[in-house]
Amino acid sequence: MAITVHIKPSTGAKFSVDVDVSQTVLELKEKLAEKTEIPTPQQRLIYKGRVLKDEQTLQGYGLEADHTIHLVKGGAPPGSTPASSSASPAAPTTSTNPPAVPPGLGGIGFGGTGGTPNLADMQRQMTQNPQLMQEMMNSPAVQAMMNNPEVMRTIISANPQLREVMDRNPELNHILNDPATMRQMMEAARNPEMMREMMRNTDRAMSNIEAHPEGFNMLRRMYENVQEPLMEAATHRPEGQADAAANPFAALFNAPGQQAGQQAPAPAAADGGAGPNAAPLPNPWGPPSTAAGAGTGAAPLPAVNPLAGLGLGGLGGAGGFDGMGVQGGGGSLGLGMDPAQMAQMMQNPMMQQMMQQVLSNPQVIQQLIDSNPQLRTMVDANPQMRTMLSNPEFLQQMTRPETLQQVAQMQQLLGGAGAGGAGGMDMNALLGGMGGLGGLGGFGAPAQPAGPPEEVYATQIQQLQDMGFYDVQENIRALQASHGNVNAAVERLLQGPG
Amino acid sequence: MSEGQATLLLRKQLKELMRNPVDGFSAGLVDDSNVFEWAITIIGPPDTLYEGGFFNAIMSFPHNYPNNPPSVRFTSEMWHPNVYPDGRVCISILHAPGDDPNGYELASERWSPVHTVETILVSIISMLSGPNDESPANIDAAKEWRDSKDLFKKKVGRIVRKSQENF
């Protein structure tokens, strides 16, 4: 039976539509979507003091001819205000269509993991650098995802292992399905302040629990029941499926394979090269990415961001027990980087591959040097270093994990001196590493602990002697003070004994 | 006889509201055979903390309506200085006519038979936009409203979200 009813939008003029009372509310909404341009998930129809549910028929609500239905728009487009972002999660649940995962998400996502070999480490890195975290969270891809918990849920439920875990552990299922929890998690992830606060709370709760007799055992059980299965599922590769994409989380946690490496540039392109992601960073790798022929070097970096964000968003709730508890009130903004982290990063095949690509291309190095004032000064002061850096063989050597590890440790000793300014953790450390490498190869680095100075500075002492500085002890002192830089040592010697 | 008058009056108001609804709320009968129990949905007024929420309430009319006021009780969770923890709305126009024994309210502020469903709900909507903490029904909420607005806002945000998830 077709009747005419009136629709009264919260904004705008009343209008009439013809409906069949046997239609469902959703069908009516679809009709209204054409007229009002309010998408169906955002429509709220209210009639006779009730909010109409999509799957019910109009007849079920006793809709009568000539009556009026209120139409209210349920929240602005996601992401602007807290109110609206809270409204959006309700929307997808009423939609009949499965939410669309942004195209390429699977690809990025899960394929091209850059950063770190395991989740706990990833979390630690993230939590230690709120800025990086924020940037990740603000990147459009991650935001789109974050603002739509349904996507998250789809991702999670698309993974058979994870789903199995969730089936086995209803509580976990509840956490991951609860829009409020998800929202809180996302908000927290986006806002470093809140993140820290949450961690403080968790920390306090943890210490309370630990203080309680049996509390620690409970915690351990919790860890065993929640984190273990999750990690197991996440890192477990399904049998007979060679494709890493089949278990995205495996790719996320394990060092990525060849395929991952190939996929990595995709998100960078999607983000517009060194787009919104990389832009705010004083990123020394940036220029190469815009330069023709050098794109490969920079591409993987932006890729790190969406992924890392994803890992946190998706699993933060459960995986978080470890990271958050351990972290406590942490969140140091320090530039100095944990050598272990650095080493891990360097050992990551993907990172190595990237480094190799970068370093085997002298042009890229040149650009890198030119784009960084500090590095340039250093190179200009030491012509040998330039020669060194343009020697592919030497660079190849530098990329050896052992070397990098040493450098990273040295870097730590130096307190992250190599690069200044607050920026992306990775980049600074990496750059510092580069600077350190130069010093190491050339003239002996400041912190180099090697043998007696006569041996370490043998060549420089010889040079100085050739120049007419005959006092060996004086020369050594000057060289030590100038960290092995002959020019600086000469200047020092000429200024006379201080 | 008076019951017949109440029924007649309520039916008339219901019919009028169906045809020409008022912004901000929707009203219908809980059960079509009982005109004394109304189901109300109040749309959280824009530009207030309650914006975006859809709050359900039951409006019960006495059989001697309109001589005595109806009572309004939120069935959705509510956090407001003028709503009792059990959901009952406490506004002066819903108080039985006559002088306030406590001397707070003037007779003119209390129930009068000229009030209709529409005027009552408009009063409730205005109550949502501007709580009156002079004679609070929910003391905790009133204290929070006065002393720690942030906490109040947070709680209201929570009930707004809850109200969105209930359908």
UniProtKB/TrEMBL annotation, chain A:
Name of the featured protein: Ubiquilin
Any one biological process term the GO annotation gives: ubiquitin-dependent protein catabolic process
Gly residues compositional bias, start-end: 104-115
InterPro entries, sorted: STI1_HS-bd, UBA, UBA-like_sf, Ubiquilin, Ubiquitin-like_dom, Ubiquitin-like_domsf, Ubiquitin_CS, Ubiquitin_dom
Cellular component terms per the entry's GO annotation: cytosol
Domain annotation Ubiquitin-like: ranges: 3-72
Stretches assigned to the UBA domain: 452-496
Pfam annotation, one family: UBQLN1
Protein species of origin: Klebsormidium nitens
Lineage per the UniProt record: Eukaryota, Viridiplantae, Streptophyta, Klebsormidiophyceae, Klebsormidiales
GO MF terms held by the record: polyubiquitin modification-dependent protein binding
Positions of region (Disordered): 71-121, 257-294
Ranges of Low complexity composition bias in the record: 81-98, 257-278
UniProtKB/TrEMBL annotation, chain B:
EC identifiers of the protein: 2.3.2.23
Pfam families per record: UQ_con
Keyword entries, A-Z: ATP-binding, Nucleotide-binding, Transferase, Ubl conjugation pathway
Domain UBC core: 5-165
GO-annotated biological processes: protein polyubiquitination; ubiquitin-dependent protein catabolic process
InterPro entries in UniProt: Ub_conjugating_enzyme (IPR050113), UBC (IPR000608), UBQ-conjugating_AS (IPR023313), UBQ-conjugating_enzyme/RWD (IPR016135)
Family: Belongs to the ubiquitin-conjugating enzyme family.
Protein's name according to its UniProt entry: E2 ubiquitin-conjugating enzyme
Organism of this sequence: Klebsormidium nitens
